[in-house]
Amino acid sequence: MKTLSIAALAAAFLLAAAPVAGAQDHWRIDFENGAAFAGYNDVRIPGDSGSKFSLSGDLDSGTAYYWRARADLRVAPKHVVSALVAPLTLESSGRFNRPIAFAGRVFDAGIPVRSRYVFNSYRLTYRYEPVRNDTWTFGVGLTVKIRDAVIRLQSQGTSAEKKNVGGVPLVNFRLERRLGARTALLLEGDALAAPQGRAEDVFAGVLFHAGKRWSFKAGYRLLEGGADNDQVYTFALVHYLAAGVVVRF
Predict the structure, then answer these.
(1) Pairing state between β 79-86 and 64-76
(2) Dihedral sign for Cα atoms in the order 10, 15, 21, 24
(3) 2-248, which class in CATH?
(4) pTM for the full predicted model
(5) Which of 49, 41, 88 lies closest to 236, judged by CA?
(6) How high is the pLDDT of residue 4?
């Protein structure tokens, strides 16, 4: 229900902007999916007194299917607004080799334990593209990101979780280099670092234009970041093998 509510708000935001563009309306729907797996995924909760452990090192973390969808609206020749829905769930299992204090509970060594790492992201973006020609497109803007995160541990008779919902601003960028009529290189993402933490979500890959309205994409995505404070310490690196389709109308 929460995901549908946020998606509905994002759609309403884009539809409200549509009349501004008039005859210049240009929609772009980008659906991406593929495989996601953790590089590092370090946790300590509470941040000042829990045990530090790794969901991908102390436990075995598997590869997960992921998807994400973005809707762009070009409201003027050099101005774009967009909404993104990007859910992510990674699961791990195994046994700790030492007792782990997590979110007010203690998980004993040698006992089978399962974990779930959820990091759902919802974003609204405005981007200004000062460079748009037959070879290059470059733009930079601002993203407002809402994260809906959960870290959960569960073993025999013991379970604990930490939820976190909050918003952060990010810098958005997009760089596209066309190599010909049908192929282009693409680098795009959202990123920002501050004393409270950092976040980077960057895609690098290839676009293949199959026609006037359809394109296909493939490449590598990196998601990295986290926070370090008294309540939570968590830093994760997630690798994505990405493929998708882009529709323009």
Answers:
(1) antiparallel
(2) positive
(3) mainly beta
(4) 0.88
(5) 41
(6) 42
* Rounded CA separation 213/24 (Å): 16
- In order, the DSSP letters of 201-248 are EEEEEEEEE-SSSEEEEEEEEEEEEEEESSS-EEEEEEEEEEEEEEEE
Q: What are the pLDDT digits (tens) for 95-114? A: 999 999 999 999 999 999 99
Helix (H) or strand (E) holding 25, with range, is none
Residue 7, Cβ neighbours under 10 Å: how many?
Answer: 15
Exposure b/e, 16-38, CB count within 10 A at least 16 = b: eeeeebeeeeeebebebbbebbb
Instruction: Give residue-wise pLDDT tens across range 118-144.
Output: 999 999 999 999 999 999 999 999 999
Low-confidence ranges of the chain (pLDDT < 70): 1-25
Among residues 45, 64, 22, the alpha carbon closest in space to that of 230 is found at 45
- Cβ proximity of 145 and 170 under 8 Å: yes
The residue ranges of every structural domain in the chain are: 2-248
Per-residue tokens: 118: 């959820």
Backbone angles phi, psi at 15, to 5 degrees: -65, -35
